[in-house]
């Protein structure tokens, strides 16, 4: 598939077997202060699903963004990854301007809306960012970014019309 093409068909089964559903449901975030991270994500309006501790050495907190089938977990001794090392997690929104405004209202330090100079997909870091909405307001092409207190990076991506085969 060239970089100008998009996948519109499901991956064919291998060896005559039916493909097995695999759903991404949990992403592990490395944080340095569990209670601070919990407050931050609760302040975003995320649902608290669990907060379990087993002594002083283990704690896991799970929260879910509104409308998302995927949750995040973090805690004490949940991952060996460095706090703040997870980047470019995407939160899909129908209206990036409204979503950004709501996060600002909740006290989140969020970037201005941007699009990529090539018009396809954002790049690592801030390279290629052009201020403002995608000029044609194409789906998948307008963004805003923010980080949690440890520096784990999030992106809002505006999707108003899905590519074929996507829900």
Which features would summarize this protein structure in a list?
167 residues; alpha/beta; 2,3-Dihydroxybiphenyl 1,2-Dioxygenase, domain 1; three-stranded mixed β-sheet; 9 strands; 26% strand; globular; disordered N terminus
Describe the structure.
The chain has 167 residues and is α/β, with parallel strands linked by helices. It folds into two domains: 23-79, Roll (2,3-Dihydroxybiphenyl 1,2-Dioxygenase, domain 1); 87-167, no CATH class. It starts with 25 loop residues before the first strand and ends in a 9-residue tail after the last strand. The radius of gyration is 18 Å and the shape is globular. The strands form three sheets. A four-stranded mixed beta sheet has the order 1-4-3-2, covered by helices on one side. Strands 5-9-8 form a three-stranded mixed beta sheet. It is 12% helix and 26% strand.
Write the SSE topology.
Blueprint: E1 26-28, H1 34-43, E2 47-53, E3 59-64, E4 71-76, E5 89-93, H2 96-105, E6 114-116, E7 129-131, E8 143-147, E9 153-158
Parallel strand pairs: 1-4, 5-9
Antiparallel strand pairs: 2-3, 3-4, 6-7, 8-9
Task: Give a nutshell description of this structure.
This protein is of the alpha/beta class. It has helices at residues 34-43, 96-105, and strands spanning 26-28, 47-53, 59-64, 71-76, 89-93, 114-116, 129-131, 143-147, 153-158. Helices cover 12% and strands 26% of the residues.
